[in-house]
């Protein structure tokens, strides 16, 4: 008799962050025996139930067990043995109570295990970017899969609960990224300020990441950097401001050459960098800009300037303001107590 395999899946879809390609099933019926895959807080359609609540997760697991058994032509009363895995002894009572309710009168053999390997991933560092509403989470290299979860469910669930975009990376990835950023920022200061590598690296180490920060920071703060004096601070200040003036003139020349209308300068939030990007995308007039959706504007701007959803929407609505400027104001509402006109 052929085995019946229920709810087949491949690990490439279930665990996209892992290099696996295994064909599996949620349940297999072999003659009169039924084998079930272990069930947790994940629903059969990929959702998650009971974050931080072991009782609710156990309830969901048993509901999935019941459904899978029924799909295989069986029921809870036929269960012979169960194995329960928990990550903390404190969860034993709520989990066992939930499972016991589903198996009342069944009397299966039961084994319970406390498994630390199922515990939540250890978090090394959390970096909040409030401007872009993003959270960067750094975990040890060997815990990336645990942190991401099946089909990325841990990340999606956390994003839904917090309302923030969450990116998870390993310590090695984070270290490599920081080193790359350090080199790129150092090179930026070397090229823009015409300074040597030592001065550029000192600026980056002190937290400077843009030419604007060097140009507008108080002289006292620059001269307070170890190895800098007031003369060095003033020179860096002058070079930074000179660079920004030259760059501004170059940007203006670019967007004018692209035929972008001067009226776009009056729209709050539209910088010269954005005007250059708009010109490159053939968005040249106020109406052209007003016709865009926020995500289209973000795509056009790309790496020239980071735009949040809120900022992009604000620019689009400001560009559309002239469409409604000449509309007559709404007529005053009729007195609710006034008699209605008789029907003709």
Keywords:
46% helix, 8 strands, GMP Synthetase, Chain A, domain 3, disordered C terminus, three-stranded antiparallel β-sheet, 344 residues, single chain, 60s Ribosomal Protein L30, Chain: A, elongated
Gist?
With 344 residues, the chain is an alpha/beta fold.
Report on this model:
- The protein has 344 residues and is of the alpha/beta class.
- The protein has helices at 11-14, 54-71, 92-102, 144-148, 153-162, 171-193, 197-205, 211-216, 219-223, 230-257, 272-280, 286-290, 294-301, 309-324, and strands at 4-10, 23-30, 33-36, 81-86, 109-114, 125-129, 134-139, 165-170.
- Strands 1-2-3 form a three-stranded antiparallel β-sheet. It has a three-stranded mixed β-sheet with strand order 6-7-8.
- It is elongated, with a radius of gyration of 31 Å.
- 17% of the residues are buried.
Query: Which class do the helix and strand fractions yield?
Result: alpha/beta
- Classify the beta-strand content into a percent band: 5-15%
User: Which bin fits the share of residues in helices?
Assistant: 40-55%
- Please name the CATH architecture of the domain at 4-118: 2-Layer Sandwich
Helices, by number, come to 14
Q: Briefly note the CATH topology name of the domain at 4-118.
A: 60s Ribosomal Protein L30, Chain: A
Overall shape: elongated
CATH class of the domain at 4-118: Alpha Beta
Average pLDDT, all residues: 86
Radius of gyration: 31 Å
> Main sheet, how many strands, which sense, barrel?
3 strands, antiparallel
- Tell me the total number of β-strands: 8
What separation lies between the terminal Cα atoms?
81 Å
Residue stretches low in confidence (pLDDT < 50, at least 5 long) are 330-344
